[in-house]
Amino acid sequence: MSGYKVLPQNNFFNMKKKYLILAVIGAFLSHDSSYATSYISNIQKIRQQDSSVSGKVTDKNGSPIAGVKVSIKGGSNSVTTNKDGIYNISAQQDDILVFSAHKFQLYEEQVKTDRLDVSLDESVPPKDTVEILYGKHKTKTFSGASASIKGEEIRTVSSPMTSNALAGRLLGLIATQSISLGNDGSNFSIRNQSPVIMVDGAIRDIDQVNVNEIESITVLKDPVSLAPLGMRSSGGIIMVKTKQGSDSEQLVNFTTQLAIQQPTYLPNYLGSYDYALLSNEASKNDGNPAIYSPAEIEGYRTGQNPYLYPNVNWYKEALKPSYYYTRHNLNVSGGNKTARYFISLENLKQDGIFKSGPNDYDTNNGSKRNSFRSNVEIDIDKNLTVGLGIAGRYEKLNSPGTDVNALFSSMKNTPPNAYPVLNPNGSLGGNSLYQRNIRGLLYSTGYSLENRRTLFVDADINRKLNSITEGLSLTGSVHYSSYYSNTVNKSRSAFAVYQLIIDPVTQAQTYRQFNSDGTFSSSDSYGDVTRRLNYDAGLAYNRSFNKHSVDATLRYTWDQYDISSNNDNTVPLTHAYQGLMGRVSYDYNEKYFADFAFSYQGTEQYPKGDRFGFFPAISAGYDISKEDFFKVASINQLKLKVSAGLLGFDRASYFATQPYYTPGSGYVFGASGTGLNGWNEQTLGNPNITWEKSRAINAGIDARFFNSKLGVNLEYFNNRQYDVLQTRGASNPILGITYPVENIGEYEYNGIELGSDYNFNIGKMGVTLMANTQFFANKVIFTDELPRQYSYQERTGGRIGQPFGLVALGLFQSQAEINASPGQFFANLQPGDIKYKDVNSDGVINDDDQTAIGKKSSPINYSGSIGLKYEGFDFSVLVQGVANKDFFYTGSNAWAFQTNGLVNTGVQPHHLGRWTPETAATATYPRLSYGTNVNNDRTSTYWIKDGDYLRVKNIEIGYTLPSDFMKRIHLSEFRVYANAFNAFTFTKLEDLDPESLFSNYPLYKSFSLGISIKF
C-alpha cells in the first residue's frame, strides 16, 4: 500500500476511521494481521505529514480575536490568528492546542477533529507585569504599591481631556476637576502630594496624549518604585504607556464621537423684584432710607417696561444651554517578527460655551486640535532592537477679547436690574455705575486666537549581550519635547454704552452716552519656548537560575528643562537633573522576593558642594499561598509586602540661594539733600538651602480568591516629610525684611487604601465589580508660626490646612440677648446678627476667640463601578464621591449685597431665609445688610457647609454587531455606544458644584454617541 498521499488532508480524521475499519475487515478475511499493520502504518504516515487543524477564535460576544497565538503544548510549532480570528496549524490527533492572547485567559483543548473553534474568556488575574521606571516588574513578585488600567477603559469617556477620564478608576489617585477656561484637565493627588507624570519614560503632560493612543496607565506609590526618581520622587508617579505595534496582521481602527456638553451647575440669582425688595430691607436694617421707590418696585413686579425696569439673567443672556465637541481618530497597527508599528491620527473640535455674536469673527472660547503619533520598533538582528516614536499636536484656542474669567465675574457680580442688555434703538445699555455692558464685553472687545505647537520625539535601543553573559543587555533612550505658541489679538478696551432717559411728561426718549467706541488694534505675540531633553543609558540584567530570578539595572540619567523667552532682554532659564539610578529585584520560586533601588541625583538649584543627594529604598514580600502547608483551594494568592525608603522633593525656586535686589529711589547724600536712585534689598538668599525629604513606609496585602475572580488590595502608608521649605512666621525688626526660605518645616502623612475587584459570570452574562476607598490623615509636626497667646490657636500638632475661625452659637433674637452677651467688637449689633462663643472666657469676642473649626480629619474618597456584558451588549457605571468633607461658604456666593467697587452684587434664593422678626424661629440666614456686614461676613462655623457628594462619573452602554455579520461585510468589529460623563451628582449643596465649588467657569457634563470600527 503506497498511495496514501491521495487522501484529502482536510478529511484526515474521518478518513482515518474508514481506513481502520478496512484494515480490520481485511485482516479478518485474509487471516493475515500484517494487512492491518500496513494500513495502520499508512495512517501514521498521513498523520505525521499531512494533518492540520483550523478554526476560529472569538470572545464571549462572538467577536473574532486577532493576534491569538495558537501552539502545540510541548512543541515548537505555533501560528497566529488573522484579523478574522482564523487559524490553521499542523497538528495530530490528541495533541493539546494552547491559545494565548493579551487580555484573555490562557485556554487549552485536545484535538479531536480537524475543526476546533474556541471562545476565550477575558483575563481575570492581574497583568503579568507592572510598568515601573526604566523597565517592568513581575506582578507576582512585586512588593510595592501600584494601580493600573488599560487605555481601552477610558477610550470612550465623553471628555476632550485625558486627565478627566481617570477620576475614581485607580486606587490611591485622586483627580479633581476645576475649570477656568473651559478646556482644563484635572489636578492629581497621590497620598496628599502632587505626582510626576511620565509618558513613555519622559516627564510630560498627560493631556498632551490622546486616549486612543494609550496602552496603559500605572500609578506608582511605594518607596522602592519612586526612589529612582530622586529629588522628585516623594509625590508618586503616573506612568503612561502609549500603544506599540505587534507581530500580527494589520489592524485598522476608526472611531468617531459626538458629544453634547452642559454646565453641571450655574449660580442662581433672584430676579429684579426680589432684589429690589431685599435691597430696601437691607438698607433699612442699616438705618438708611429705602433704595427703591414703591413705583420702581411695582415696575419690577409687572415687568411691563424691560428698558426702565430690566430683569436680566446674565448667565442665560451670555451662555448657551449646551455646546458640543467632536472627536475622530484613525489608527493603524501591525507588523511582523522584524518590525512593528502603531500610527494614529486624530482631529478634535470643541465648541465654546458663549452665545454667538453679530460679528464676522469668532468671539467664542472654542478650540481645535490635530494630532498624530507614530511608534515604530525594529529588530535589526536577533540581538539589537531600536525604537522610534514621534508625536505632534497643533491646537487653535479662540477666546473673546475680554478675559473669560472676567466675563464670568461680571455675570456673577452684576444685579439683574443693573441695565437693559440692549436699548430700544439697539444700542448697548449701561449707566454711570455700569459702564461695562456684559454683551459688549463679549462681542465688542475683539478676539484672541492662540496657536500652540507641540512636538515629542522618543528613541530607544536595546542590545543583548548574551555573548558576555546570558540575560545581560545594554539599554538607552532619548526623549525630546518642544512647545511654543503665538497669539493673534484683535482688541479694544473701550466701547460706548447708553442710558435710556424718558421724559416723565412728554415720554420723549433720549440717551446719555458713557465712553466711546475705541479703535481696534491688532498684535501678534509669541509666548515662551519650552524644551525638554532627557536621556539615559546603562546596563540591564535579567536571568533565572533554577528557582532563583534576578532582575537588575544601573543607569546614568540626565533631564534638562529650558524656558526661552521671546523678550530679548530676558536670559533663558535652564533647570537640569543628573545622576545614577539602580534597582535589583530577586525572587525565589515567586515565594520570597525583595527589591533594592536607589538614586544619586543632583541639580544646579542648590549651592555648590551640596547639589547631590542619595535616595535609597528597600522592599520585601512573601506569598504565603506558595507554601505547601498553605494549600487552600479558595485562596489563589496571599502576598504580604513592606517597603521603606528616603524620597526627595525639589521645591526650591530659581536662585533661591541668592539675594534679590530691586530698583529704589530716595537715597539722599550730602548737605544738598539731592535724591539719587539705587537698589533695594528685596529678598534674602539662603546659601544653606537644600531639597525636602520624606521618610516613607508602605505595607500591604495583595490577595486573590475563588480562582482569582475576587481580588483585594490593602495598603498602609506613612510619610514623614522634613526639611520642608518655609519662611519663618515673623520678621525680625532689626533685619527690616522677611526671612528667606529655610528647611525648617516637618509634616506627617499617613493613611489606608483599600481596593477590591470581583469578576464572575451569570450564565452568558459577564459581571465585573470594583470598589476603592482611601482614608487619609496628616499632621503638622513643626512649622515656625507666630507666638500665640492661647494654645488652641497653634497650628503645630493640628491637621495641615486646618481652618480657624469663630464658633457661632446661632443668631441674636433680641436686644436683651445682645446686652446680656459678651461684647462683640466687630460692629453695632442688632437682632438677627450672628452670636459667637467666648472661647477664652474673657467677656469679649475678638480674634482671640478664633479656634480650629470644621472637620479635624481629612476627607474620605471612594469610588465603585459595575460592568455587564451579554452577548453583543455591554453596560458600565462608574461612581465617585467624597465623604467627611466640609467647606466655607464665603464671598459673593454666600453673602448678600457684597460690595463690588461702586456697586453691589445680586442675591440668591438662600437669602430669602434671612432673619426678620417674623421669621426669627426659622431663619437660616442672618439679617440683611447692604454691603459687607463686618460681624456676620467673617469665617465662622455658621458658614460651614456639608461638602459630601456622590457623582455618577461615567455611564456607558454599547452594542457590538455579531461576528458572522461582520465577516460578510469584511469588518473585524463594529461597535456603537452612548456615554455620559458627570451625568448626575447627589449633594446637599444648591447652585454649586461640590468639586469645583467657587470656580467662575462651570464644570460640564457630557453626553455622547460614538462608533468604533475595526477592519
From TrEMBL:
**Protein name, per record:** TonB-linked outer membrane protein, SusC/RagA family
Provide the taxonomic classification. Answer: Bacteria, Pseudomonadati, Bacteroidota, Flavobacteriia, Flavobacteriales
Cellular component, GO annotation = cell outer membrane
InterPro entries given in the database record? Beta-barrel_TonB, Beta-barrel_TonB_sf, CarboxyPept-like_regulatory, Plug_dom, Plug_dom_sf, TonB-dep_OMP_SusC/RagA, TonB-dep_rcpt-like
Q: Which organism is it from?
A: Flavobacterium fluvii
* Places the protein is found: Cell outer membrane
Its membrane topology: Multi-pass membrane protein
Which UniProt keywords are listed? Cell outer membrane, Membrane, TonB box, Transmembrane, Transmembrane beta strand, Transport
Task: Say yes or no: keyword Cytoplasm present.
Answer: no
